[in-house]
Design a protein that fits this description.
alpha/beta; two-stranded antiparallel ribbon; about 190 residues; 8 strands; 5 helices; 2 domains
């Protein structure tokens, strides 16, 4: 009989340890926001079959578009960034995130550009190809990280926020193109 109790006690103890482990994992994932997002998705999915879902459901259910940049030619690479920035600004669409920012595109760099790409390069390309009619940019971040007036003619507004590490794009594998609803700007992040 004593052996039977030990096995039964061990089984109950094991179940208790497993339960504590699951609870701990749930609490950890809750702090990281993973559970909250999953619960939101389930709630929004069920709610949308009954009635018009609340605004926060857009955040829980959408996903951004992803594109691969396959060309290492600096001008082609710059053109990809500029084209996606213009499209993001024109459509003002994408996944609504916190702080009224929409993630329009995630550009995955399969190849690295041959040379550094600064905000100047994107703005110059916009100017040369008529993109400034849609997406103006009169203030740029220079090579030193300082905001300076663009020396060309790309409108009178600063509608590109250049949030790039080391002020240039070269080795970053991911470039995000986002739309800031509050500032009415496109953010390039890398």
């Amino acid at each position: 009989m004593g052996k039977y109790r030990n096995k039964k006690g061990l089984a109950i103890e094991t179940i208790g340890i497993i339960t504590i482990g699951f609870v701990s994992l749930f609490v950890l994932l809750s702090f990281l926001g993973v559970i909250n997002l999953s619960v939101n998705r389930i709630f929004c999915s069920v709610y949308s079959t009954i009635a018009e879902p609340p605004a926060f459901c857009e955040m829980a259910t959408c996903s951004s578009e992803r594109y691969k940049i396959m060309d290492s030619d600096t001008e082609s690479f710059t053109r990809e960034i500029a084209a996606h920035a213009i499209t993001c600004y024109q459509h003002k669409a994408g996944c609504l995130q916190e702080n009224n920012v929409r993630l329009c595109y995630a550009l995955l760099a399969e190849e690295r550009p041959d040379d550094n790409i600064y905000e100047y390069n994107v703005t110059k390309l916009l100017e040369d190809e008529g993109g400034c009619d849609v997406l103006e940019n009169n203030v740029i971040v220079d090579e030193n990280g300082d905001a300076v007036i663009y020396d060309g003619n790309c409108g009178i507004h600063d509608t590109i926020e250049w949030q790039v590490r080391d002020t240039f794009i070269r080795n970053q594998p991911l470039i995000l193109i986002e739309y800031n609803e509050i500032n009415d700007t496109v953010m390039v992040k890398a």
